[in-house]
Amino acid sequence: MKSSRDYKKLRGPEKAAILFLCLGEKHGAGLMQKLDDYDIHSITHAISALGTIPADLVEEVMSEFMETAGQGGGLVGSMEMAENMLKGFLPEERVSDIMGEIQGPLVGRNVWENFSALNEQVIANYLKEEHDQTVAAILSKVKPEVASKVLPLLGEERMMEVVERMIGIETVPRYVFQNIEETLQKEFMSSATRHTGPDPQQRMADLFNKLDSKLFDEITQRLEQRIPEAFGAIKAKMFTFDDLCKLDPQSLVKVMRGVEGQTLPLALRGAKKEVRDYFLAALPARSRDMLNEEMTAMGPVRGREVQDAQSALVDYALELARDDEIRIPLDDDDVIID
């Protein structure tokens, strides 16, 4: 990490990681005991990846937490430091699991990224020969935008079976993924894996966010009938393009102005009228007129292009939220009302 790195680019887990390093292994372990698994995983991953942290950056982080930077010396985050901190309060087996997910198996670290880069039809053809549980495990590890394209290619009945298994996946033994990774490495690529995330429900929410809206509407009713509780928990974590209407006008304008090229007019061109009206109402009159002209000049647009543009806006909104630039209300009671 270079000293010139902009402090504003530091994400929450990275700031927390720096604070834990300042506290040291003993005090840091005591504090980490109070966190849930998701936060533990995020902070541990950040600690292992920080490297050398300049003293001025340490001071800024400590200042934000209304504390003093002490001696102001630089810190070094490493795999060893992260592992030692976890050993202070977690069983050896749990520590091994977390560090194994972060480090990946010895065969490499990019298998899932490389597998995700394959054409979705190639992935689907390969998965058609696998057991449903194996397919579910594999699609729970690839990028959500890729899984959302592969699932429909499996056929409706098998897609439903796989989706239910993906929702039901909680903890898969590490050796199972290692066997899958080794197989993928032999058949597709020369390098392997990196971890996904500790929250399978959030991963399914991300996948459904990327899924074609009509297809999602089609499977929603069946999932609500067959696994209502699990599916309800996932829906609660979803954030869709229509949910951008929950933002206050100022935050929404910040999202609209942050995307490039034709992304905004393309996204609104295929939006529901009430959603489009909310977007337009947030803009000054001149900007609103210009945007309307751009949408009119576009003519017919492809559904996939609209979906990609809407996904880009959602992704940017979530990025701003992670950087604390905007606040995203996710509960129905938290909707902004004019």
Automatic annotation (TrEMBL):
GO biological process: bacterial-type flagellum-dependent cell motility; chemotaxis
GO molecular function, a single term: cytoskeletal motor activity
Annotated protein name in UniProt: Flagellar motor switch protein FliG
InterPro entries for this protein: Flg_Motor_Flig (IPR000090), Flg_Motor_Flig_C (IPR023087), FliG_a-hlx (IPR011002), FliG_M (IPR032779), FliG_N (IPR028263)
Domain (Flagellar motor switch protein FliG middle): residue spans on this chain: 121-193
Membrane topology: Peripheral membrane protein
Gene3D superfamilies per record: 1.10.220.30
Function of the protein: FliG is one of three proteins (FliG, FliN, FliM) that forms the rotor-mounted switch complex (C ring), located at the base of the basal body. This complex interacts with the CheY and CheZ chemotaxis proteins, in addition to contacting components of the motor that determine the direction of flagellar rotation.
Keyword Coiled coil: no
UniProt keyword Cell membrane present: yes
Domain Flagellar motor switch protein FliG N-terminal, residue spans: 9-105
One GO CC annotation: plasma membrane
One Pfam family here: FliG_N
Keywords, alphabetical: Bacterial flagellum, Cell membrane, Cell projection, Chemotaxis, Cilium, Flagellar rotation, Flagellum, Membrane
Family of the protein in this entry: Belongs to the FliG family.
Subcellular location field: Bacterial flagellum basal body; Cell membrane
Every Flagellar motor switch protein FliG C-terminal domain range: 222-328
Species, as recorded: Thioclava atlantica
